Amino acid sequence: MMLADVHIMHQSDFYKITDFKCYCDVCSVSAAEYNESLCLSFIRKGFFGYRTFRRHDEVHAGRILISKPDYEHVASHIDGQPDITTVFEFTADFFKQIQDQYDQGAWFLKNNDIHSLLLQSSPELDYLHNRIWKKVEKRNTAHLQIDEMVMELLDGVMNILTRTTNFPVLTDSVKQFHLGTVENARAYILENFTQNISLQQLAGHCLVSPFHFSRIFKSIMNISPHQYLKKVRLNHAKILLTTTGQSVTDVAFACGFNSLEHFVTAYRLRFKINPSAQRKIPV
Question: What per-residue confidence (pLDDT) applies to 52?
């Protein structure tokens, strides 16, 4: 039997955000469960398998599970690694709007033979999910702000819907011993990206050597630690540029860049616009 705590952290007219915490210490498989809504699952810690009629996906750090309504599934875990997951559940009416809105995802959203899909996450989506989670944890944030952030997250997920969904399967050793390393590193970066983080600092925080840390992180996240950190910083810079009156120089240093020139170059490469011009465009 699978043991879990499920709490609704925030609810809107067209979605709800649920905190799912599994407490299984021994590998187990759930009974058949029925998915009643379109769900986006962002795993914060641990691992779970998700099996539908035609697919078996492994969900962990660096992955996003998108699952459609009206289909059964079973979930599974491995010993000692129950998952802690944020689930965004969208209403049936809103799912119909999503199907009509996103033409690039029609091959999945309107195909009754594909029940779920595993996507590669990104620093941008991890950063946005982390911002949303921090807001709903406080339980006193304006609903409109959360709604807009959830819509931005949904848009980001829909824009990476592609037909390429084959990921390398992690070995049992990596699942058992190294997922926690990447989870700790990702959490550390999202909490400390304004600081001058070094590879040695990250690896030491995760209790592994710098050499092994870099290999483990990139194999799971599909991006180097440095590139992940830089993209998180740039996305935070975009928020500051469009929501505060801070100068470009202040924004650069507030986001962890040690050079204004480096910041401007990186921002222009990432967003195809100069930071000074970004102020005129809403986030």
Answer: 87
**What is the residue-wise DSSP string for 37-80?**
SEEEEEEEES-EEEE-SS-EEEE-TTEEEEE-SSEEEEEE--TT
Rounded average pLDDT over 175-188: 91
Q: Determine contact, residues 35/66, Cβ cutoff 8 Å.
A: no
CATH fit for domain 4-156, picks 2.60.40.10, 2.60.120.810, 2.60.120.10, 3.30.160.20: 2.60.120.810
Is the separation of the CB atoms in 117 and 107 below 8 Å? no
**How many other β-carbons are positioned within 10 Å of the β-carbon of residue 152?**
16
Q: Which of 51, 46, 44, 47 is nearest to 30 (CA)?
A: 51
Place of tokens 């209790």: 207
Label residue 168 left, alpha or beta by phi (over 0 means left) and psi (-120 to 50 means alpha).
beta
Q: Is the dihedral of CA 176, 182, 184, 186 positive or negative?
A: negative
Q: Tokens 């040690």: give the residue.
A: 258
Q: Does the pLDDT value for residue 39 go beyond 90? A: yes
- For residue 24, pLDDT over 80 is answered with no
- Tell me the per-residue pLDDT of 109-131, one tens digit each, with 9 for 90 and over: 999 888 999 999 999 999 999 99
